[in-house]
Amino acid sequence: MIKAAVFGYGNIGKAAIEAINAAPDFELAGVVSSSLEKGALGKIPVVRDVDELSDVQIVILCIPSRNVPDIAEKILLKGISTVDCFDIHSETYNLFTRLDAAAKKGNSRCATSIGFDPGIDSAIRALFEAAAPKGLTYTNFGPGMSMGHSVAVRKIPGVKDAMSVTIPVGAGVHRRMVYVVLEDGADFNKVTAQIKSDPYFVNDETHVIQVSNLDMLIDRGHSVSIQRKGVSGSAQNQRFTFEMSIDNPAMTAQMMVSAARAVLRQAPGAYTMLHLPPIDLLYGTEEELIRRLV
Amino acid sequence: MIKAAVFGYGNIGKAAIEAINAAPDFELAGVVSSSLEKGALGKIPVVRDVDELSDVQIVILCIPSRNVPDIAEKILLKGISTVDCFDIHSETYNLFTRLDAAAKKGNSRCATSIGFDPGIDSAIRALFEAAAPKGLTYTNFGPGMSMGHSVAVRKIPGVKDAMSVTIPVGAGVHRRMVYVVLEDGADFNKVTAQIKSDPYFVNDETHVIQVSNLDMLIDRGHSVSIQRKGVSGSAQNQRFTFEMSIDNPAMTAQMMVSAARAVLRQAPGAYTMLHLPPIDLLYGTEEELIRRLV
Predict the structure, then answer these.
(1) Which pLDDT band holds residue B20 (cuts at 50, 70, 90)?
(2) Within-domain flag for A226
(3) How far apart are CA A23 and CA B10, in angstroms?
């Protein structure tokens, strides 16, 4: 049994607990949370720090992307493996090299940038290029709530609550619809300007809409359509499409648990979804998986 | 540069030459063919046996599935790596273990059951299960010509030429439409009975249609739709779809060339598409690939 801890108790953390409970080869060692009360999860230990749990092999980091680099590095250096769902695309390579160094130093394993996108989408894009090396791939998100974008808006001063919905415009272009509940006295125009200049939003057409309550708008469903049209050898017009329509935190957490299984089978170091052999993501014997899936 | 030979000069062999020529890191060492004339490909050496070529690292086997086990094993034992597109699903595991043993003995590498299905479809099915471990996956082929099925029919006595078209019926069920040109004096009913009892056809509704000429019917295009509806953690109704519409021999050959690149980066042994890390399939530096695809 793989002894795993869940770090963070938001949407993804809660879903990670469900995914661990559903996996036949995992055991939940505990939940690391700074806000959750000690007895809140019954028999499941709630702790403030990973060190308070014993025999943890891997920590599923269900925390905002911006907190991942420091927290993951610290855990990896202790000799405990990690999985994260870091999702700032422009920074994934730097994080990969940093965590690769930490994991090799700590003799631990790290699955980084795992989940939806980066995550399953990354592996799909790689397979599409392997089948047709020349051509264009478009990743079209939505309609659906983007967790990374929503968390980024909630960190902006004056924002009480927020939800960012991604609308696909086509050919990989998106519009962002940001629904915000403001703190009393916050300046809507100032908040809007800050959102639009945030790295998560600066490249997309972004609309900010003030609402008094978010509860009636929230649906954690999300979708993607990845399309490639390319060339295999000299054959033109080869077409590939991947579509997914999911409860986003549930899929992200599930993929992190699958990647936890896979990364523990690798040599010390860091791995993205591009590096993990698909068979290692799955529970079962090699024979059973080859007979069923190949 | 990877020095690769192409073994076989049918539809897939011709496409493999195109894929090798289009790859920046491959060099075509020659073509192994028992029927092609020595000078038929200009400057490209045409030989009868792999031994006649020097410095070949990997042989792309573009031969009927039933010839793969013996030929691949022989080459692997010589210390030369192979890629095959063996496509008899019920026998892939036994072939994998046999070629794994040969490759380890010969200190070579083997990518087996690579191409369309088994192939890219195998990796997709594994990723879908990683994202939603419980549920059902349906692989729906066509409409399109199945190469493996067509080759199997052409081997039946009395058949001059044949094409097997796969029609998706839904939920992974298929109908086979087999168009045959018979040898003079062949018995249509006898041929039909043999086709219907062949392992390639015995499980599917199969219709055999006699035609006088196949030329006007042949289109190498093929399609697939893989659909999974499953559960991530405790979230139901997670939906995943992969669709592909391709020139089939061109995609198969391209995937074999990509797998050749990948397998040469692994330890000696056999690898299916489930075993190969997606990043290894692609040309480029790790940094460039992570920045572009993760």
Answers:
(1) very high
(2) yes
(3) 46
B168 preceded by cis ω (within 30°)? Answer: no
Domain that includes residue B52, residue range: 2-118+248-293
Domain count, chain A: 2
Q: How many residues make up chain B in this entry?
A: 294
* Interval B140-170: pLDDT, tens: 999 999 888 999 999 999 999 999 999 999 9
- Answer yes or no: do A9 and A113 share one domain: yes
- Asked whether residue A125 is domain-assigned, the answer is no
pLDDT of B263-288, one tens digit each? 999 999 999 999 999 999 999 999 99
Cα A190 to Cα B140: distance, rounded to the nearest angstrom: 52
Q: Confidence class of residue A148 from pLDDT cuts 50, 70 and 90?
A: confident
Cross-chain CB nearest to B290 (options A129, A246, A274):
A274
Binding residues of B: 9-12, 62-65, 166, 176, 222, 248
* A146 shares its domain with A62: no
d(CA A272, CA A98): 13
Residue A147 has a pLDDT of 83
Residues of A with Cβ-Cβ distance to B22 under 8 angstroms: 133-134, 231, 233-234
User: Residue B37 sits in a domain of what CATH number?
Assistant: 3.40.50.720
Instruction: Output the CA–CA distances (angstroms, integers) from residue A291 to A286, B109, B162, B282, in the order listed.
Output: 8, 21, 29, 26
Last residue of a domain, one of B192, B208, B232: B232
Give the Cα separation of A167 and A51 in Å (integer).
Answer: 42
- Tell me: pLDDT of B115 over 90: yes
Q: What is the ipTM for the molecules in this complex?
A: 0.94
The amino acid sitting at B267 is A
Among A204, A232, A260, the domain boundary falls at A232
User: Cβ A278–B273 below 8 Å, yes or no?
Assistant: yes
pLDDT digits (tens, 9 = 90+) for A37-86: 999 999 999 999 999 999 999 999 999 999 999 999 999 999 999 999 99
Structural domain includes residue B111: yes
Does A141 lie at the interface with B, CB-CB under 8 angstroms?
A: no
Question: A257 to chain B: which residues are within 8 Å by CB?
Answer: 233
Look at the alpha carbons of A150, A151, A156, A157 in this order and tell me if their dihedral is positive or negative.
positive
- Domain identity same for B189 and B269: no
Tell me how far apart the alpha carbons of residues A82 and A112 are, in angstroms, rounded to a whole number.
Answer: 8
Residue B203 lies in a domain: yes
pLDDT of residue B147: 84
Are A190 and A268 in a shared domain? no
Number of helices (H), then strands (E), belonging to chain B: the values are: 8, 14
pTM given for the model:
0.94
Two tokens at A190? 């100032």
Q: How far apart are CA A18 and CA B234, in angstroms?
A: 6
Give SS3 for A161.
strand
Q: In this structure, what CATH number is given to the domain that contains residue A203? A: 3.30.360.10
Are A41 and A15 part of one and the same domain? yes
Cβ separation of B274 and A278 shorter than 8 Å?
yes
